[in-house]
Structure of Xanthine dehydrogenase accessory factor:
Amino acid sequence: MNRNLRWFEAVADCEQRGEPYVLVTVVGVTGSVPREPSSKMVITGEHTWDTIGGGHLEYLVTARAREQLAASRFETVLEHFPLGASLGQCCGGSVSVLLEGQPGSDAQLVVFGAGHVAQALMAIMGQLPWQVTLVDSRAEVFPADLAPNIRALHSDDPVGDAPVLCRGRHVLILTHNHQLDYDLCRALLDAGDAASIGLIGSQTKADRFRQRLAHRGYSAEQIAGIRCPVGRSDVPGKRPMEVAVSISAELLSFGTSSQSRGPRRGVSWPQLRDLMKHEPETPQQPVETK
């Protein structure tokens, strides 16, 4: 992670990686202040980028932002800070800041196989708020320009790694080897805790795999948990990008927990009205901001 990013670069980076963050903007000032209106910074649970002036003001704003993140309160909040003795600053002015919480995404996907379809799919997933792990035993097939939210994992034993790697995650099996596909299916069904399993292939392949799995003693319910052919049937085409579009559309239809957190309300009109009121030029007593 680059610690030298400007605030707008940090926003883009957090969005691509799906990391929750708070965008802080100075929206109003009176008197002598360390930074002017529209100054911004970005705050995550561990890092900050850019500055709204430093000092105890920035320390308090960072603490407030991290309280929001820790409580998963992705809301828009106005805070007002008189720069007096209570903040250890003697500027004599005051600063109003807007904190905009962004939830990022905890949707996670593991893709086995880095062939043509997977590479086309990575071009799409790199633009979406998913955390993706691309797994292959062939180090030379990984694309060189993967997006920040995609991790390439070279594994000499993808079947052995699958149970731990895929726990609670959506899984796509897109390898070049039918036997490897089958072994991955068995490993994931044995583990039983993947969020979903999609397998690339024709209807003939799907029927054959179902028969083999049933012969191995897997239940009809377990076998039905494997989507094959993977992707939406109403998205036609067999080119790698067409198949990738079909698969990504199916993944998006699942939704994510960050999408199901409910509507986020912005700043209320009374808050905006109070902020827009003209403040007297005489110094005010520090007030609590809780």
Q: What stands out?
A: The chain has two domains: 7-104+261-276, 107-254.
